[in-house]
Amino acid sequence: MIVPREAMLIKQASFVNITCFLFNFPNYKFELLWFNLNLIMRKLSFFILLILFSTFDLINCANSAKRVRPPVTSIKIISKNSNYTIGEPLSVEIKTKIKDGTFRKTELFLDGKSLIFSEKPEFSYQFDTKNLQVGTHYLKSLATTNDGIIGENFNEFLLKSDLNPQKFSYKIVKTYPHNTDHFTEGLEIKNGYLYEGTGQEGSSAIYKTDLSSWKTMKEFKLNDQYFGEGITILNNKLYQLTYKTQIGFVRDLNTFDLIKSWYFKNEQGWGLTNDGECLIMSDGTQFLTFIDSQNFNEIRKIEVCDQYGVVKNINELEYINGLIWANIWTTDKVVEIDPKTGKIIAEIDLGGLLSSVMVNPKNSVDVLNGIAYDHATNKIYVTGKLWPKLFEIEIVK
Ligand SMILES: [Ca+2]
Q1: Cα end-to-end span (Å), the chain
Q2: What range does the domain containing 331 cover?
Q3: What is the CA radius of gyration of the chain?
Q4: What is the Å distance from ligand 1's center to 167 Cα?
Q5: Pair 117, 104: CB distance under 8 Å
Q6: The pairing of beta strand 135-145 with beta strand 103-110
Q7: What is the DSSP letter of 388?
Q8: In 8-134, where do the E strands start and end?
Q9: Does residue 9 lie in a domain region?
Q10: Residue 396 burial class via C-beta count within 10 angstroms: exposed 0-12, middle 13-18, buried 19 and up
Q11: d(CA 374, CA 191)
Q12: Residue pLDDT tens, the chain, 397 long
């Protein structure tokens, strides 16, 4: 029995032989010609397929061009500057273009809240900024067609503080020794004891020092994987942040036994304090986050600003008489922040503190970091990372 492929080959061979016989053409030349024809046909079929696919794509593009496009809306902030001082009125222009359908309205939002809407595709709007917080604010224009097709656009602006911070200096009242191995990240006083949290992986710890005898009463070393950061004491518990592990620890103030730990969303943990209810943390940015001390939910954030704009690198914190005091990392500056608004009220220049004492040139000291306020005596203590001294200071106004 002859299988179909064999039958085809016989048929092809017969066709070649008969054609050669009829036209007196050498067999091998005809086979060469036949081979080349086959090759050309194969290449042609490739190009035909390519053309077919391209045509299909073109048809597709033509179809997608017919799809309904969302309105194109824009928000332009009218000003000669990019930053504004809080209280300045701010004007915006909104323009919307519709390619398909019929325009219905464009609505303007400020920080997610609706400000105004207009049934005209172009309109301008002016609003007051005096009741806003300092820091960054977000505008959104949301344009709608009658078919319900939505287009949106965003813009942002910064509100600087309208305060010119008071400038304070300091006076050293007393000098105490400070362990030059302590990479100070948190400092707080409670019931006559100074609590210090230190950093660096492998040497992070908490120390409790008697303020009258200056003896270390208790210390607790953190697991090597943790880089200890800010500490604060609330309701007989000691709260401590870690640097990049996004974990905070709650310990019994007397035993340092772990009560619980919590996860925080901030990418980094820096300074920590409390206002008697909430934990307040810094994270190296210009933001301070207020956290519920029971369930660790984020309550609110403030953005720290002075008259020039946002102030970043907010580090160790201390809550003193209704204001948040903060070290600005890598500087000798401590700022006093209004916890409601984020505005800097005053700046304390602590420059020259270390030059007042003998520093062993073999000791590599790091930056100023660590503010502790004794609510019982109204005394203020400051130190720095790896500093040989801790200072009780008085603010000179
Ligand atoms: Ca502190």
Answers
A1: 114
A2: 166-396
A3: 37
A4: 21
A5: no
A6: antiparallel
A7: S
A8: 72-78, 83-85, 90-97, 103-110, 113-118, 122-127
A9: no
A10: exposed
A11: 8
A12: 334 444 343 344 444 444 434 444 444 444 544 545 555 556 556 555 555 555 544 445 445 445 789 999 999 998 767 789 999 999 999 999 999 899 999 999 999 999 999 999 999 999 999 999 999 999 999 999 999 999 999 999 999 999 999 999 999 999 999 999 999 999 999 999 999 999 999 999 999 999 999 999 999 999 999 999 999 999 999 999 999 999 999 999 999 999 999 999 999 999 999 999 999 999 999 999 999 999 999 999 999 999 999 999 999 999 999 999 999 999 999 999 999 999 999 999 999 998 877 777 777 889 999 999 999 999 999 999 999 999 999 999 9
Residue 254 maps to which CATH number? 2.130.10.10
- 254 plus 341 within the same structural domain: yes
Amino acid present at 153? N
Kindly report the pTM of this predicted structure: 0.80
CA distance 311 to 338: 13
Both 103 and 180 in a single domain? no
Question: Is residue 63 assigned to a domain?
Answer: no
Q: If you measure from the C-alpha of residue 161 to the centroid of ligand 1, how many angstroms do you get, rounded to a whole number? A: 25
Tokens linked to 343: 């505005």
Phi, psi of 175 (to 5 degrees): -120, 135
Ligand 1 centroid–CA 265 distance in Å is: 21
Edge-first strand listing for the sheet containing 122-127: 72-78, 90-97, 122-127
- List the one residue out of 234, 247, 240, 245 whose CA is nearest residue 197: 240
Distance (Å) from CA 130 to ligand 1 centroid: 32
Whichever domain contains 156, its CATH number is 2.60.40.10
Please identify, among 98, 130, 160, the residue that sits at the C-terminal boundary of a domain.
160
Is the CB of residue 302 less than 8 Å from the CB of residue 286?
A: no
- CA 164 / ligand 1 centre spacing (Å): 25
Indicate whether 126 and 197 sit together in one domain: no
Kindly state the greatest CA–CA separation across the chain. 125
Spacing, Cα 183 to ligand 1 middle (Å):
14
Asked, for residue 222, whether it belongs to a domain, the answer is yes
Q: How far is the CA of 229 from the centre of ligand 1 (A)?
A: 11
Number of domains making up the chain: 2
Answer yes or no: do 151 and 180 share one domain. no
For residue 241, which of 189, 278, 204 has the smallest C-alpha distance? 204
